[in-house]
Amino acid sequence: VKMSLAQRVLLTWVFTLIFLIMLVLKLDGKVHWNWFLIFLPVWIFDGILLLMLVVKMAGRCKAGYDPRNGSQELRKKAWYLVAMLMKLGFCLMLCARLDGLTDLMVVYVCVPLWTMLTGALVELGLNIFPSRRD
Amino acid sequence: MLFSLRELVKWLGFATFELFLHLSAILVFSVLVALQADELIKAMSWWVVFVPLFAADGLSTYFTAIVSIRLYQEGERRLAVLRLLWVLTVLSLKLVCEVLLCQKLAEKDQRELWFGLIVSPLFILLQLLMIRACRVN
Description:
The structure holds 2 protein chains of 2 kinds.
Chain A (H helix, E strand, L loop, with lengths): L4 H23 L7 H4 L1 H23 L4 H32 L7 H4 L1 H18 L6
Helix pairs in contact in A: 1-3, 3-4, 4-6
Chain B lengths: L4 H8 L3 H23 L7 H4 L1 H23 L3 H30 L8 H22 L1
Protein name (chain B): Transmembrane protein 203
InterPro entries (chain B): TM_Fragile-X-F-assoc
GO cellular component, one term (chain B): endoplasmic reticulum
């Protein structure tokens, strides 16, 4: 599954737009849906991303990939998978918290988010200072 | 993940370092929001919570100014002006949104400041990003 840049941009753009509109409607009290419904664009978008990722990983595992280059690539994909799952977990807990289904402290709700952000920062940092890795 | 870093840099028009800066600001900001929501720190105003974001905007502006001046000196005038204009537009839209949101949160009974108004800079930003995506392609 290989999408062109335009398709990926459009996908992200549409879902962000829909989510923002629904968020505004909810916050202004124009609609009284529960938060899980408001996050529907997020669920769909994440679902698509997860599906693409899993398909790619499965394809890579099945085909005899280049073992030297491949394991590095696979590790990266695995990290993406973990990051996506953490983001999903954060959104689910946030929705549950906002709907009053749980009294969990927000600090605990945010732990997956922080883990994910830290990971992303490390990845970006490695890209800025590539010499440090060697 | 969905986009490679190179595509992101090209699309958003920000350097990797600036992305790093904004991401770390978001991280600190989310920590402060969580602390504020749980009321773990007494008497912290929402303006303090938003400080990381404001700081990132300021630093990013500074960084862009330097990069643009360097580009200008090296004779890439068109590129320098375009980059400066684009980054300043994005940052000011982001800043407007942040200030409005902060004001809304800080003062409880602000009936006329509805969320649609607060988020409107983001809608403009989204349109601009779409236009830019077409050009990058």
